Amino acid sequence: MRQLVYYIGQSIDGFIAGPDDEIDFFPVPDEYATWMFAQYGDALPSHARQLGRIDDVPNSRFDTIVMGRRTYQPALDVGITSPYAHLRQYVVSTTMTESPDPAVTIVGDDPLEFVRGLKAEDSPLDVYLAGGAGLAGALLPAIDRMVVKQYPIVAGAGVPLFTTGFAPTAFELADVQTFGSGHVVLDYRRA
């Protein structure tokens, strides 16, 4: 069975975005960007893959993305309706009932059961959970792996890594990648 991987960036104090969903305060130096393109190019939006000249590189980790409505919104705000054209795209939303693009499917109810169905598909590639915090909280029982990109910055406030009720869930640290810039990538597997 393939895995659901929560691949997400956070500040040192555990915020994945600012109070108004800002992410532009996360520093991305060249060494770190090079690593992201090489190791997790599948998780980059299509326009970033084109800029990095990897848009014709076959997917090696993911073939599907699941994201919340607020994660999808920045693309819509700039007129992009299919931000991850190289992946099957699912947006979990209770407010958006129709998709603005035939390549994007809206999932309106029971995201946990839906994702369990995706995980049961026969594919050598995993499912990328892009966020946000509420969706990650709802899908916590199905998350097999978390790849947490920790940026060397304190946000002070914002959107946490998860929003859910009290639900202690054990993960084991499988790998750590460090960068001279202070960036750290923590790879956790479900215990």
Automatic annotation (TrEMBL):
Stretches assigned to the Bacterial bifunctional deaminase-reductase C-terminal domain? 5-184
Give one GO molecular function term: 5-amino-6-(5-phosphoribosylamino)uracil reductase activity
Biological process terms in GO annotation: riboflavin biosynthetic process
What is the protein's name according to its record? Dihydrofolate reductase
Q: Which SUPFAM superfamilies does the entry mention?
A: Dihydrofolate reductase-like (SSF53597)
**Pfam families cross-referenced by the UniProt entry:** RibD_C (PF01872)
Organism domain of life? Bacteria
Tell me which Gene3D superfamilies the record gives. Dihydrofolate Reductase, subunit A
Native species = Jiangella aurantiaca
